[in-house]
Amino acid sequence: PEEVESPKSTVILGESDWDSINIHNSIVAFILEHGYGFGIEYVFNSEQAMATALINGDIDVVVEGRIEGISEYEPAIADGTIVDVSPANDILVNGDFAQRERVAVIFLRRYKISADMTDDLLAYLKENELEARDVYVYFLQEYESLWTQWVTVAVATKVRLALE
Predict the structure, then answer these.
(1) What whole-number distance in Å separates Cα of residue 135 and Cα of residue 94?
(2) How far apart (Å, rounded) are the C-alpha atoms in residues 97 and 59?
(3) At 83, phi and psi to the nearest 5?
(4) Model pTM?
(5) Count of Cβ atoms closer than 10 Å to residue 90 Cβ
(6) Short-list 74, 37, 61, CA closest to 158
(7) In sequence order, what are the beta bridge partners of 10?
(8) What is the pLDDT of residues 38-65, one digit of tens each?
(9) What's the burial of 87, exposed, middle or buried (CB within 10 Å: 0-12/13-18/19+)?
(10) How far from 8 is each of 33, 100, 128, CA to CA, in Å?
(11) Rounded to an integer, what is the distance from CA 20 to the centroid of its chain?
């Protein structure tokens, strides 16, 4: 089904010092910004501080995280303060954000990158001596048949044009 246009706001992504979260952030950010028209901000935190910021609404989305080991997540998920929109990738969103930006949440629910694919992206990063945020170009070009399944034709067209 086609997604309904939503008011364009800024999506605040939780960022940390591990490469895989920053690779995922760059992919999600590029699609949200260029495909859907959202602004993007990053907030750097440790994993524990990121959980607190997500629960408090200071961060909208944590694209890659561990629910296990963060005791605050379970009760926050149970009461709707945060929503686990993609258990395969542990993509967590603030509950208020989930209500306000449904079009972004629809995309995030569809966003699925396997562990093997993440390993490929990490290897590409190391082999090419890139910053994690620069890997999105490789992903969007090499895995177009995957990411275009997550978005509408109109969004995919906007993302492709932004890559040129």
Answers:
(1) 26
(2) 9
(3) -125, 130
(4) 0.91
(5) 16
(6) 37
(7) 39
(8) 999 999 998 889 999 999 999 999 998 7
(9) exposed
(10) 10, 10, 34
(11) 11
- The rounded percent of the chain whose pLDDT value lies above 90 is 74
Both tokens of 36, joined, read 């859907």
Tokens 């067209």 label which residue?
Answer: 157
Which amino acid type is present at position 150?
W
Amino acid occupying residue 23: I
Q: What is the pLDDT of residue 118?
A: 92
User: Largest alpha-carbon pair distance within the chain?
Assistant: 44
Burial class (CB in 10 A: 0-12, 13-18, 19+), 7: exposed
Quick one: tokens of 13?
A: 């992504």
Q: How far apart are CA 86 and CA 20, in angstroms?
A: 16
Give the Cβ contact number of residue 110 at 10 Å. Answer: 13
Got the DSSP string for 113-137?
--HHHHHHHHHHHHHTT--GGGTHH
Secondary structure of 52-91 in the HEC alphabet? Answer: HHHHHCCCCEECCCCCCCCCCHHHHHHCCCEEEEECCCCE
